[in-house]
Amino acid sequence: MLKKNLKMAIPYTIPVMLGYLSVGMAFGVLVVKSGISIWLGVLMSLFVYAGAMQFVAIQILTSPIHLIQVIFMTLFVNIRHLFYGLSFIERFKRFGVKKQYMIFGLTDETYSLLCGITDKSEDELEDLYFIITLLNQSYWVIGTLIGGLLGSVITFDTTGIDFAMTALFVVIFIEQWLAADKHLPALIGLAAAMISLKFFGPEQMVLPSMLLLFSALLFLNAKVKGGESNG
After folding, report:
1. Exposure string for 87-126, b = 16+ CB within 10 A, e = fewer
2. How far apart are CA 123 and CA 87, in angstroms?
3. How many domains does the structure of the chain reveal?
4. In this predicted model, what pLDDT tens digit does every residue of 127-159 receive, in sequence order?
5. Are both 47 and 139 inside the same structural domain?
6. pTM of the predicted model as reported, rounded to 2 decimal places
7. Cβ-based neighbours of 120, under 8 Å, separated by 6 or more
8. Residue 230 falls within a domain, yes or no?
9. Residue in 27, 56, 59 with CA at minimum distance from that of residue 150
10. Model confidence at 231: pLDDT above 70
């Protein structure tokens, strides 16, 4: 059964594997170039596993910064995950002990993959979701280790290497756009991001854009349900 589920899960994770290995390597390189132990970087990928926040953590660990700043910075970088969880809260309740790891491992890319799985039965989803999440984290950890080892022996300019995370987001978005039948949610997301960027700037746009997107989708969902009940 495990072999069957693993064989089923791997094709879903290939785009994330390519991205996480490269971005994880970028993180590993930055870790050692910042004077942090490679093993601390690997432990962060195992027990923190926060993607973009791990890049921010390098700055936190290497620069004098107040605890209050750390708390608010972490909140604003990762608060979008609260909205992700709302999509799966009812389904994860049925996953038993696995739900704890599923909550921990629900990154942007994993969330995107899980949302795209619509052709499986409820019985198949629990193991498939779990294996996809586990595979994705393993790619990130392996990438971190490889990057840390390379950064320890190779000298090169790392300027701009942290853009790899942004590039991965763009690739995932394009893949989801091509696979989706309806593009309205994506267009709403783009509009929310552009409006928030205009009025709040690049440093404070994440939370407003997520709130705007969530409100718009909630309104549209209520409107659709209202139309169905009236019809």
Report:
1. ebeeebeebeebbeebbebbbbbbbbbbeeeeeeeeeeeb
2. 18
3. 2
4. 889 999 999 999 999 999 999 999 888 776 666
5. yes
6. 0.70
7. 128
8. no
9. 27
10. no
